[in-house]
Prior knowledge:
Strand order of the largest sheet: 2-3-1-4-5
Bound molecules: zinc ion
Shape: globular
Order of helices and strands: EHEEHEHE
Distance between the termini: 48 Å
Structural class: alpha+beta
Oligomer: single chain
Helix content: 10-25%
Number of strands: 5
Amino acid sequence: GSVMTGISTRSPEVHGYHAHVYYDQATFPIAEKLRETLAANFPVQVGRLNDAPIGPHPVSQFAAIFETDAFQTVIPWLMLNREGLDILIHPLTDDMVDDHTVYALWLGAPIRLKLDTMQRRGYSATLLPAA
Ligand code: ZN
């Protein structure tokens, strides 16, 4: 008999990506420098350093927003230069719950996100790559 894997060549539409870089008091200087280097050298929009929890993120982090075609330059660089910081990379589909769970990619250790802060829908324009 055949094995049903559920694997399909069809995928949800991806409108871009976020990389969320987590830090704490001790690693703040590393995060700050990583953010500056990202902003200066890569086609990303970086958000501010959020010391307080926001949305599904339970600890301090900043976000980088980028287009799908920047993935191959941004992600390998983060992979090699994260200096021990934990990073969540997630796609921007029309279902933010899936984006932060089944579609999530982690560099370093995964962090337990507050999933009940999200709904099964897409993102406001400010969270998508600028047109
Ligand atoms: Zn995000």
